[in-house]
Amino acid sequence: MSFPYYIAQRIYRGRHGSRQASRPAVLIALTGVAVGLAVMIVTVSIVIGFKREVSEKVAGFGLHIQVSNVRASRSYETLPVVIDSVLLARLAAQPGVVHVQRYSTKPGMIKSADSFQGMVLKGVGQEFDDAFFRAHLLEGEIPLFTDSAATNKALISRSLAEKLRLKLGDRLDTYYVQDNIRARRLTIAGIYQTNFSEYDNLFLVTDLYTVNRLNNWEPGQVSGAELAIADYNRLDDLTWTLADSLYNHTDRYGEHYCVLNVEQLNPQLFAWLNILDVNIWVILLLMTGISGFTMVSGLLILIIERTSMIGILKSLGADNTTIRKVFLWFSVFLIGKGMLWGNIIGLAFYFVQSRFGIFRLDPATYYMDKVPVSFSLLFFLLLNIGTLIASVLMLIAPSYLITRIHPANSMRYE
């Protein structure tokens, strides 16, 4: 145990000789560090949780990567491309891909007795992964969709059902305009709600057979294939790998394939999510500054209070560096205690919000009905290490005040 560490520990643990002036300073310093770290933990967990929730909801409607016709426009009126069993197996065999499913879309309109609403009818086959819709299903069930027969059943969002005054089991008349107007009557088999209004107000889900018949496509033709990947961090790498493997590859009708991921298909949305990272950095810098300022104030008060002790140590042969280390070690003890309380507060908020969802949101504005939180051990450790290092570095310059204290004058200081 070094001499500065020993002295700092005795000062920190001592109570009988401490002056009243230092107690408020120590309390303010502890509070500043605790509040600053707690706010940083809460902010990071909320932003990460929000980005994760939005990304998962966008991916839930179209998975992570889509393979479609290269000539298809950005509209929902897609051009067909052949996705057969050979290509499905080839896509599924790509390392990192965990699921592949076909889809087809057809824009149309729903008409009820007193209202109408534009929509996109999305058809899925028997390989459709219904985990996302099952997690957000409010009523009814998810039919067994197929590409060989019409089920005449559909999934509809609660927001669409409320707009059209429809309920589970009702029939809805849908109309589609191509060379002429075509109609299909579907039965509501299930009602879902993801609170992602852009898609909830748009998509109806039915079987692949019905949508392909409405599009007058040849057997094997669909709008494309959707791929789910295991590691989202490899999204760009897998997209380029798949695009390279399908480069200059054509189907039997001469159509070329195009590979796009969810971020490329929704650039405005993900650009908005990336802006949230700027907010995180601003808050981190502000909270670090507040924590450091309170610690600097507390250290200066403690140095002034301990002026006589500094003079005695200097008269006994201690140099300025040794005495500065004493006060820096003492500050580390205070920072550690403040960080402990900050971690307790931040983790308590995460636990309570993740389990009980006390803090609510307006789903029409924020795409979810409660404040999302997500815990990342890596970010948690980085916040703690960064707070400790930044706080100590901010105290180095103020500690040089010790060099201005002379033993002869300081020992008379009271």
Give the overall silhouette: elongated
Average the pLDDT over all residues and give the rounded result: 85
Strand fraction band? 15-25%
The helix content is 40-55%
Please count the beta strands (DSSP E, at least 2 residues each). Answer: 12
Distance between the termini: 30 Å
Please indicate the count of domains.
2
Structural class: alpha+beta
H-E string:
HHEEHEEHEEHEEHEHEEHEHHHHHHH
Q: Give me the Rg, rounded.
A: 31 Å
* Poorly predicted parts: 15-21
Instruction: Profile the largest sheet.
Output: 10 strands, mixed
Tally of alpha and pi helices: 15
Report what the structure shows:
The protein has helices at about 5-15, 20-60, 85-90, 130-135, 160-165, 195-200, 210-215, 235-245, 260-265, 265-305, 305-315, 320-355, 365, 375-400, 405-410, and strands spanning about 65-70, 80, 95-110, 115-125, 135-140, 155, 170-175, 180-190, 205, 220, 225-230, 255-260. The protein has 15 helices and twelve strands. Strands 1, 3, 4, 5, 6, 7, 8, 9, 11 and 12 form a ten-stranded mixed beta sheet that branches. Strands 2-10 form a two-stranded antiparallel ribbon. The chain folds into two domains: about 5-55 and about 270-410, no CATH class; about 70-255, no CATH class. With about 425 residues, it is of the alpha+beta class.
